[in-house]
From TrEMBL:
ATP-binding in keyword set: yes
The organism's taxonomic lineage, starting at the top: Bacteria, Bacillati, Actinomycetota, Actinomycetes, Pseudonocardiales
Region called Adenylyl removase, residue ranges: 1-481
Organism from which the protein derives: Saccharothrix australiensis
Domain PII-uridylyltransferase/Glutamine-synthetase adenylyltransferase: 331-477, 837-977
Name under which the protein is recorded: Bifunctional glutamine synthetase adenylyltransferase/adenylyl-removing enzyme
Renumbered residue ranges of the record's region Adenylyl transferase: 489-980
Key words of the record: ATP-binding, Ligase, Magnesium, Multifunctional enzyme, Nucleotide-binding, Nucleotidyltransferase, Transferase
Domain Glutamate-ammonia ligase adenylyltransferase repeated: 87-310, 582-812
Signal peptide limits: none
One record GO biological process: regulation of glutamine family amino acid metabolic process
Family: Belongs to the GlnE family.
Keyword Transferase: yes
Region (Disordered) location: 1-20
Function: Involved in the regulation of glutamine synthetase GlnA, a key enzyme in the process to assimilate ammonia. When cellular nitrogen levels are high, the C-terminal adenylyl transferase (AT) inactivates GlnA by covalent transfer of an adenylyl group from ATP to specific tyrosine residue of GlnA, thus reducing its activity. Conversely, when nitrogen levels are low, the N-terminal adenylyl removase (AR) activates GlnA by removing the adenylyl group by phosphorolysis, increasing its activity.
Amino acid sequence: MTDPARTPTSPARFGLTSEAGGEDLRAAGWWADRRPTAGSEPILWALSRSPDPDLALRGVDRLRVALGDGWPELDAALRSDEVLRGRLLAVLGASTALSDFLVANPDRWRSLVDPEPVTADVFASALPAAVRDLTGAEAVRALRLAYRALLCRIAAEDLAHVVEPDLPHVGYDEVAGLLSDLAVAALRAALDVARREVPRSDECSLAVIAMGKCGARELNYVSDVDVVFVGEGDLGVATRLAGALMSVAGQACFEVDAALRPEGKAGALVRTLEGHASYYQRWARTWEFQALLKARPVAGDADLGQRYLEVVRPLVWTAAEREDFVPDVQAMRRRVEDHVPAGLADRELKLGRGGLRDVEFAVQLLQLVHGRGDEELRIAATTAALAALGRGGYVGRTDAVDFGDAYRFLRILEHRLQLQRLLRTHLFPADDDVAGLRRLARSAGLAAEGGLSEAQVLLAEYRRRANQVRRLHEKLFYRPLLQAVANVPTEALRLTTVEATARLAALGYAAPDGALKHIEALTRGVSRRARIQTALLPVLLDLLAATPDPDGGLLAYRRVSEALAETPWYLRLLRDEGTVVDRLAALLGTSRLVPDLLVRAPEVLRLLADTQALTGRDPMTIGNPLRSAVARYSDLGRAVTAARSLRRHELLRVASADLLGLMSPRTVCVSLSEVWVAVLQAALDAAVRAAGERLASIAVIGMGRLGGRELGYSSDADVLFVCEAAPGVTDSDAVRYASAVVEQVRRLLSAPSQDPALQVDADLRPEGRQGPLVRTLESYRAYYAQWSELWEAQALLRARFVAGDAELGARFIDLVEPVRYPAGGLDAASVREIRRIKARVEAERLPRGADPSTHTKLGRGGLADVEWTVQLVQLRHAFEVPSLRTPSTVGGLRAACEAGLVSEEDAAALRESWVMATRARNAVVLVRGKPGDQLPTAGRDLAAVAGVMGHPEDPGAFLDSYRRTTRRARAVVERVFYGS
């Protein structure tokens, strides 16, 4: 027996089975009554590709019955004409409403034969011609018939490629434009009919302004057409004329909605041009300007319509200056979303999350904010405006493409859903509506793939696109930079050179001519980079104006921008992350250190968008990544270069967080100290690897602020080096080996660099600079037992193992314990000696001309005062108070207070002064970009330091506070240290 599926003309061969949707073939009467003859194969293949083969087949059968004797002509045309076959079977398989239209008007199939695409000119001539000299119901019937026939023609060209893949694909933008042009032609035809129906219509002028999707030429198959009417002359006649137009068009084609007029449905249907101008200037709300973005004269008095645009367009492009404009638009979108029924939110193509309104609101908001200064953004259509935003750099290229593609996909789905019954709907089929999903997938041109059915492919693609839209909507629509740009006056976006200079001077720029040159350099040309800078600079200029040094900040911004000109993400980051812009402006207008580091460590800029990433790293583990990265290099030079690079990254990260007030002084000090430790460890490891055979183990002992984990931005690394010979190696050979390794480390780290210096200072070693750089452990033991002086015991109070051989380092610390914590404490002579040394340091080492009241290190109540006081207490009492045995100044002060050796009040005064002096010293380095212990007392540097210290409004108050705090500490030093 022959398998039916193998019969040349069997339906199963073409996928027309119950599984493919062809189970109603016999019921349709086609297969039972007419066995396919020669030439049927193309028809059957086309039917199999139709959105709904059953529906298409029933439509063909109904046409056969309706045509009667005229059927053979259509039958022959279907077999031979690919264009007709694709168009007709696509329409019949996609739309029951258009099938009904063709069955009711069977000769209309001939309108689908013309291979040339339909155009707006066809609409403009056909619709007015259809109603010429007609009025009343007759005119409505004629207009309805002509409109529906042309709508069918658009749908046929839109869908034909689905059935016949070789036919041209008509994209969404073109289809939406054709539907809009058809609606405009219908409005004009309806106005012609209205003029004949309304007495004395020649006594007024009426302009019809299309709004919404019709105004933007992005209309749906089924949609209200939003309009506004402008009249001159007898407004009573004009109002009747507008009402008649709405009635004719509403009965024949679509509802005409005038609710976007001033005052909405409560307002007059027709207003004069002056009435519109007065309303929009005085009373209009934010959303009304958003609606005017798409206004376009389409019918009636063209001159009046153009004058209307000339009145309202300038108002549209200054609307973003309105108070709370951006929050108003954002709140409006949320209100729309909140009104979507909860059970339908995921299926609502238009209003739901990830729907069409997400795209439209985001695009319109970006246009209204940035279009004030960029006329190329003044485009009504969503997809065209999105492309312009992408070209202008206001939206990333990839984001613009993804947003546009997702929007077109969702609009195509909306079109296909509306075509089914020519009903206004935006509801995606439910997950269990397999037939509906399959029909929609096929009409949208989606095919089964990868083991997934057409319905499953559609669901996956719909969810992917909706998620994509929502992600991009939230990224663009709630972009913090939008509010900042909106706050910039429109006139500031388009200034002459003279006006710009005056504005810069008013903002506080000391050299506005120089600032203008920086702006011109950044925005010169027509590149995408220049356009993004043009959008960013008005905001940055305002932000920099609020910093201590606007001119220096703008120069630094230019330097950074030019240095990172080829970094693809740099401007994109500033455009998309408002937090980065705010923080970068604050840093550049305050610090000279940050710009220098930023051009060589630009990756830190990304961290400004994420507070946790900027500050969240545990300072005690900060050096681990550095050590791991450097360990990969066998070449010593490359290893040290890598260490420098990673140190630069961490230094900039810490400095940025510090300047922005996001990091405590202790965390700053510990972080800087641990970075130094990691650099030393990494460099030492690399030098040992490069030396080959290891003749000795080496340990590095941190001293001073490094030992106490209290380093600042400009601190050297005070260290001691200790070695121990390997088995079979003499001490002298071990010392020579270790000295060579250490010298190489010091030389490489201290090599000239644009980064803050990496000085390894070993002057605290036995015999100072005259003594050997490296000693064995036994040599140190012998020295400290016989020759060490009191100052060396004091220096050892802060000794801590930091790098190299940990076991050797621990033994060194054990060795010096009796030296720095002498049994019985200090005798009276030793206390006097320490006081004498301190007094000499104060007299001799304070720089000539320095102000003792504002010198952070050696001044009265400064770092040295507090540290010497704590160290004296440790030397006298640590032998009996174990908690005093700490290299930390603050830790030692806390222990002294808890042991009753210093009163709580005195300890608080010393701690407050030490912390303030530490912060101030760091702030000086950050602001000036170079080491310094003296506080500035006037000018921008003082303002910047005061700002870092929490006194941005009153630098004088900061100086008063600093002097008051250190004066209290000095009084404690006089009592506790000097015993006076």
